[in-house]
Amino acid sequence: MTEQQKINVDHTNKFQRIDKVLTETIPDTSRSQIQGWIKDGYVLVNQLKVKSNYKLQLNDEVTWQVPEPEPMNLEPENIPLDIKYEDEHIVVVNKAKGMVVHPAVGNETGTLVHALLYHCDDLSGINGINRPGIVHRIDKDTSGLLVVAKHDKAHEELTNMMVNKDVSRIYEAIVHGVISHEKGTIDAPIGRDPNDRQKMAIVDDGKEAVTHFTVIDAIQDYTHVMCELETGRTHQIRVHFKYINHPLVGDPKYGRRKTLDSNGQALHARRLSLKHPVTKEYMTFEAEPPEIFYQTLETIKKMG
Question: Which of 23, 88, 198, 247 is the most exposed place for a label (fewest CB within 10 A)?
């Protein structure tokens, strides 16, 4: 069981359903998951059990504890990994396109975590049984660099660096349409899509999200861009570029119906820069995009 957390209801969330507010408050949760916690008594209002449709009142004290996830059978799996750096504290890996980062319902095997458990003797336990070592994630069909913690001290340091925006993450992407200016910043808050809980969207009460981008090349009706994340919201680059009407090529969730086949969104975490959590040495890692990324660019060039 995690440490108890709480919020006090103010004018911004009064009269809203408790399951809706908590889904937007607690990262990486679904509404059905929150409803289960409420039913099982992990969520209390003024120290009393309530139902999922309870409408919050001004000054209500909402407290909750996240239950430990049901342990999955996390057997190490001998899956090849592209390790860019490793010592006794961290591992930096270039995740393959199509690989899920950690196990969840529907993805119980074949994840990066399974591969890391085979490769490493130790991974930090901060994120619980199913996400050992995982400090940050990238989507299944996004390839590129991730840093993984081997012990809890390194994990805490890396998490603090992420929160304080002391980690630089640069992505390479191909988007629909011609972006006419060389540089830009997308500053728009991201939260759950109120019409589709499986998606994120630009919403007024979302969390701050800032993406800086530089155009590498405009080819036909497409643009090749580099993006630097100032924040790290779920699906941030994908949602931001959809918002400015330049959705990512191949994106099945936020993209256009008529797009190019790039085996999912054309997005790659190319460069990762951080201060080592133990030695404090400043380190930069780089990984080239996968072959499918370059093939997509070649396909676009041949369209003219």
Answer: 198
Alpha-carbon Rg for the chain, nearest whole angstrom, is 20
Both 228 and 175 in one domain: the answer is yes
Portion of the chain with pLDDT greater than 90, in percent = 71
Which residue among the candidates 28, 82, 121, 139 is catalytic per the annotation?
139
How buried is residue 155: exposed, middle or buried, by Cβ count under 10 Å (0-12/13-18/19+)?
buried
Cβ neighbours of 192 (radius 10 Å)? 20
Helix (H, G, I), strand (E, B) or coil at 26: coil
pLDDT band at 47 (very low <50, low <70, confident <90, very high): very high
Look up residue 156 and give its DSSP letter. H
pTM over 0.85: no
Closest-CA residue to 100 (of 134, 139, 136, 69): 139
User: Is 187 marked active-site?
Assistant: no
Contact by Cβ (8 Å): 179, 246? yes
**Where residue 2 falls among pLDDT bands split at 50, 70, 90?**
low
Angle between helices 18-25 and 31-39 (to 10 degrees): 120
Confidence check: pLDDT of 181 > 70: yes
- Reported as half-sphere exposure (CB side, CA atoms, 13 A), residue 256 has a value of 15
pLDDT for 193 beyond 70: yes
- What is the Cα–Cα distance from 187 to 300, expressed in whole angstroms? 29
C-alpha span between 216 and 294 (Å, rounded): 14
User: Which amino acid, one-letter code, is at 92?
Assistant: V
Question: What's the domain range around 115?
Answer: 70-164
Distance CA 201, CA 13 (A): 19
- The domain that contains 120 carries what CATH number? 3.30.2350.10
β-strands 5-8, 183-187 pairing: unpaired
